[in-house]
Amino acid sequence: MTAAPRSLAVSPSALVVRWDDATATLPAATLRACCRCAPCQAARLRGQPAAEGSAVDLVDAQAVGHYALQLAFSDGHERGIYPWTFLRELGDLLPYETGV
Ligand SMILES: [Zn+2]
Question: How far, in Å, is the centroid of ligand 1 from the Cα of 99?
């Protein structure tokens, strides 16, 4: 199980997650496209894009217990739960900012 990050910073364009050993900047559009809530997963299975491209902004992030983050987007979508493990995996797919 992935431990909670040291800190989080929410901006319209990205979520910055600081882990003990790395910092990941996760673009809002990427997070929106990777939403794992049931309707988004169903849409993806039907071959429909989950998000409307890069126009979506991140508007809020709330901790869910000690294991995840619930993100709200400017398109009104706010049901996506992002477990720390998932955020960590997502960050590993993107280039890291080191020495931050
Ligand atoms: Zn969703």
Answer: 32
Q: Note the pLDDT of residue 99.
A: 47
49, two tokens? 């894009």
C-alpha pair distances (Å), 4 with each of 19, 58, 69, 83: 8, 20, 10, 9
Report the distance separating Cα 44 and Cα 88, nearest Å.
22
Backbone Cα Rg of the chain: 13
How far is 35 from 44, CA to CA, in rounded Å?
A: 10
- 70 versus 51: the higher-pLDDT residue is 70
Q: What separation in Å is there between the alpha carbon of 24 and the centre of ligand 1?
A: 21
